[in-house]
Amino acid sequence: MLKKLLFHFVRSYRHSTVPQSFIFVIDLLVAVAIFFIVELFQTQNGPWNPHIVFIKMCEVLAVCVGCFLLTGTYRSIIRHSGLNDIICILTACGIPIVALGSINFLNNSYHLIDQCIMLSYREVVEMFFLLAVGMIVVRLLAQRIYNEYFKRRRPATNIIIYGAGAAGVIAYNALQQDLRREYRVVAFIDDAPSKEGQTLNGVPIMQRRKAMNAGFIKKRDVSMLLIAIPAIRTIHKQAIVNKALELGLTVKAVPHISMWINGEFTANQIEDIQIEDLLGRDSIQLDNSNVVREVFDKVVMVTGAAGSIGSEMCRQLIQYHPKQLVMLDQAETPMYDLQFELRSDAKYSPFVDKMAFVIANIKDRRRMREIFEHYHPQVIYHAAAYKHVPFMEENPYESVFVNVFGTKNIADLAMEYGAEKFVMVSTDKAVNPTNVMGTTKRMAEIYIQSRKSEKTHFITTRFGNVLGSNGSVIPLFKKQLAQGGPLTVTHRDIIRYFMTIPEACSLVLEAGAMGQGGDIFVFDMGQPVKIYDMAKKMIQLSGRTNIEIKEVGLRPGEKLYEELLATKENTIPTYHPKIMHAMVRQYDTAEVDRTYSELEQTLAGMDAMQIVAKMKAIVPEFISNNSIYCQLDGKRS
Q1: Catalytic option among 429, 441, 578, 614
Q2: Could you report the per-residue pLDDT of 315-327, keeping only the tens digit for each?
C-alpha cells in the first residue's frame, strides 16, 4: 500500500512541484522526530515525564514554525535544492540556538519560569544541529529518489565535461536535473596538471590527451563533449572542437555567464557549437581613443545602416557619443528592425535622442542633397552597396548606378558640405575583379581615390567575407541543413577569407581614424577557408551524418579565390597589426571625371553589353569568369 501511495505521489508531481504546505509539514515532522530522539537519550539521566516532554515538544514546534516561516525553508523546489537552500536551512536552525540559549541564560539569572520545562543548553544545540542535518538529508533523499525514478525510463547519454572549475560543477548539477534527457558524466577534462587524478562528485578529472582519444571514447561509449569554460579563448576552443569532431563527438558549450538566466544555468541553456566559433579569431584589441577623437560630439552618417555591416557600425559608433548618428538606408523593413532594436535595448537608451533614422536611396542625388543640407554630416561611413555577385552580373545597370554613381553622389556632397572624413567599405572582390559587382566596387574606389580636397579626407577599407552577413554562405548552409540538405557548394576547391562582423566594423572605425586621405587599408583576414570543408564541419556540428554536399558549379562572375591586393599593389604596416596600408597607383581627377561622364552616358542607353564593355575599359584587370561577358574579353562564355 505504501509503495502504491509513493508511486502515485511521484507520478502526480513529476511535472510540477510539491506543495509548499507539504514541505512545511514534512520539516515539522522531522523536527518532532529529532526532538524525541534527543529526549530519549536524555531519559538516561532521569525518568521521562510525559507532561514535561509534551510542553517541550510544543516549545520546539512553536520555535520551528516561526523560524521556518521567517526563513522560507519550505519555499524551495526540493528536487532542485542547492547551496542556497542549505544555507537557508542552517540559518533557520541557527536562530533557535541563539534565541533559546539567550532565554535559558535570562531564566537562570532571574528564575522567571520553572527550569524543568525549558530545553537545556545541550538539548537546544543537539536538537537544532540534528534538525539541520535531518532537513538536508530529506532533501538529498528526495532528489535521489526523484532522479532515480526517471533514470529507469530514459537511456543515458555518456558525456565528458571540458572544464573542472566552477562552471563545470554547475554544468554537472544542471545535467543531473535535466528532465528531457539522461546524462551520465564519465569524466571531467581540465588543462591544469594539479587537478589530474582528483574527482568531482565521484567523477575523475583527466588530462585532455588521456580522455580525448579514440580508445577512451570507445571504451566509455562517449557521444558528447560539453565545453564548460564560458570565457575560453577562441583558438583554444577551436582546437578542442576540431579534435572532438575527429572523434565523432557531438559538441555543446555552456554559454557565457552573462547569458545565464538570473545568474543561474540550466541544461536547456546548453548551446550548439556554431561554425562561426571555428572560423572566428580571438577578439582584437583597439585603441578606442582614436575612434573617440574621430567621432565624439560630431554628426556621423552611416549609409547602408540597416545592412549587416552598417547596423553593427551603428551599434559601435553610438557608444562613442557622437553629437548625432544619422542612419540611412533604402530598405524599410530592416531599417525598422534596427530602429526598434536601438530604441528598446537598455544599452542604447542613453543615446536615443542622438539617433536619426532616414529612408533614402543614395542614387537619388536630389534627396541626398536635402539630407546633407539638413544634417551636415562631419564623418561619413559609406557601407551602402549592392553585394550579391550573381544578381549584379544579371543587372549591371543597377549595379553601376548604385555602387558607382551612388558613391559618387555621397563623395561629391561630402566635399561640397565640408565633411571631414569619408570612409568607404569595399571588398576583396574589387581586386582583379572577375564580376560586375567587384568591378563596380573597384570603380567606386578609383573615384574616391581621385578626389583631392583639403577639407575632406577619403579613405577606403577593404576586406573579405564576414561571418553571418546578409547573403553569405553560412546562413544559406543553415537553411539547407534545416531543410534536410543537401548543402550546395559551387566548387570543391573554392576558398574564402572570413572575419566576424564586429571585428570587421571595429577595424573599419580604426582604419578610418588613422587615414589621412587617399588611403586604402586592407585587413589581416587570417587563413583562407575551404567552403567545402566548412560545409562538412557544419554537418558534423549538426550531428546529422546523412546530409550530402552537392557541387553545383561556379556561378557567373565567381572565382575560386579572392585577393586583398592587386598584383601591382604592395602594403606597408600601420600601428595596428591587423591593418595594412596599401600602396596603390594614383589617379588623375580630370581623367577620372571625363571617364565617368562617358560611363554615365553609356548607362543612359541601358544596354548591358555596352555598360560592361565600358567598365572593362575603365578597369583593364576586369576579366569576366563563367559569364556572358567573357565574349568581351575575346573569350568564349
Answers
A1: 429
A2: 999 999 999 999 9
